[in-house]
Amino acid sequence: MTWTPLSGRAQEIALEVLLAGPLTRLELADRLDLSAGSLTRLTKPLLAEGFLIERDEPVGNGQRMGRPQRPLDVPASAFHFVGVKVTSSRLFGVVTTLKAEIVHATDVAIDSKDPGHIVAGIAALVRDLTRQVGHVEAVGVTVGGEVRDRRTVVFSHILGWRHVPLADLIAEATGLPTVVDNDITGLTESESWFGEGRGLEQFALVTIGAGIGYSYVVRRHQVSLTDAGLGAASHLPLDPTGPVCRLGHRGCALAWLSSGSIAGTVSTALGRTVTYQQALDLAEQHDPAAARIVGDSARQLGVLLGMVASLTMPEAVLLGGEGVRLATVGKHEMEEGITKYRDPQASAIDIRLRPSDFTEWARGAAVVAIQDRVLGRV
Questions:
Q1: Is the distance from CB of 168 to CB of 154 less than 8 angstroms?
Q2: What integer pLDDT is reported at residue 225 of this predicted model?
Q3: What's the mean pLDDT in 355-364?
Q4: How many Cβ atoms are within 10 Å of 224's Cβ, its own excluded?
């Protein structure tokens, strides 16, 4: 079975059940402001064609009179999507259901950043993941950088690319509908549709790792600007006494918080090379130099989170990325940083730590493909 893009009220119904289901007909009619008769008329063909199903478990009506209702749901496991996150050294892939539930995950190393080499690697990964489920609807790919029209990588510092028509190249290599987007955008949409942001009126996402990411969502709509893929939050000034980033900014978020900067500063202090995770391990073990450096960075992370909360006033700030462990190792210092420039009467920030595995980034790529398929864009 293939998901055929819907339109109009049929699309609204399927989307609401996908994002909030299972839902009884009463709940669904109330959410979409439909009469019982109209809902019955609209859902009948969706049930007949397999876009909706009735769950076996009836739901009681509480104080309402009448028999229990069988909730409506989408047959999530009947449709599969592949998501691939491209980094400078590896490809991380997942195959998911229509509800972005991960069925299988894998990753492979890449030894070249040449677009042709990476496209071939993605095609092989897609074939491997497709074999796990038999058929996939579409492919989503995310990269760090600026992406235009979900088709072309305009610029990627990490990959050294300019104007690479990645979606078309992958579609040609795989024979599957393909969409490409910025990695922060994909992760944000994943949180909005199926993750911690589900049900929130507004939330912010901050990621730390090789770079610094930021996004903002209002009523399921990610605020999207022309420069969203440039990582503008990376260069917000936090403390001018800090290290210098690759663009020459002293004390910006990238210089203070990126995994490479923290690992490099600790390595210099110790006189030997350590990885980011080793630097955090040493800080936990109370190594004086590592503890000081990691603590200072965690304090600046708090400044950044306080800045985000003060400027956008979200219900919650989701904190993720492969470097998110900084928030737990330096929890006390991060809390100090949050309060440094924040009004003492301001509400506490609801900070929610998210998984740091690259599999989550690949899941975000799959969600981009799910969105385009469900909304009829691919």
A1: no
A2: 61
A3: 92
A4: 12
Q: Residues 6, 51: contact at Cβ < 8 Å? A: yes
In which residue are the tokens 């063909």 written? 45
Strand boundaries in the chain, DSSP class E: 53-54, 72-73, 80-86, 90-97, 102-109, 138-143, 146-148, 152-156, 161-164, 178-182, 202-208, 212-218, 221-222, 316-320, 351-353
pTM: 0.91
Domains in the chain: ranges and CATH: 8-74 (1.10.10.10), 79-189+359-374 (3.30.420.40), 199-353 (3.30.420.40)
C-alpha–C-alpha distance, residues 188 and 199, integer Å: 14
- Sheet with 152-156, strands from edge to edge, namely 146-148, 152-156, 161-164
The token pair that represents 243 in the structure block: 């290290």
| Residue 283: per-residue pLDDT | 98
Do 318 and 196 form a contact (C-beta atoms < 8 A)? yes
Confidence check: pLDDT of 60 > 90: no
Gap between the Cα atoms of 316 and 202, Å rounded:
8
